[in-house]
């Protein structure tokens, strides 16, 4: 028979723990796909010719999703190739 245990913890601690678990899951999924989450500054350093202004305009046009202000490198490259 399976053993069941109850744990008590403050809500703040639970929220923080769940946030960390979700972030780790996203990072692992991206690593499995050979992808990275990068900020706009990191993207402009990685992709020659990309500026904050051009990225911001294209991001709005293509409705690119972010995760806490970071964007998928593969999604940004795909967005640039489609334009």
Summarize the structure in words:
With about 80 residues, the protein is mostly helical. Helices cover about 60% and strands about 5% of the residues. The chain has four helices and two strands; from the N terminus they run αβααβα. It has a two-stranded antiparallel sheet with strand order 1-2. The longest helix is centred in the first third of the chain and has 22 residues, at about 10-30. The protein is elongated. The protein starts with 10 loop residues before the first helix and ends with a helix. The model has no long low-confidence stretch (mean pLDDT about 90).
> Which stretches of 5+ consecutive residues score pLDDT under 50?
none
**How many DSSP-defined strands?**
2
- Mean pLDDT level: 89
Distance between the termini: 58 Å
Tell the overall outline.
elongated
Brief characterization of the structure:
This protein has 83 residues and is mainly alpha-helical. It has helices at 11-32, 40-46, 52-62, 73-82, and strands spanning 37-38, 71-72. It starts with 10 loop residues before the first helix and ends with a helix.
List the defining traits of the structure above.
single chain, 83 residues, mainly alpha, two-stranded antiparallel sheet, 4 helices, elongated
Which helices and strands occur, and which strands form pairs?
Blueprint: H1 11-32, E1 37-38, H2 40-46, H3 52-62, E2 71-72, H4 73-82
Antiparallel strand pairs: 1-2
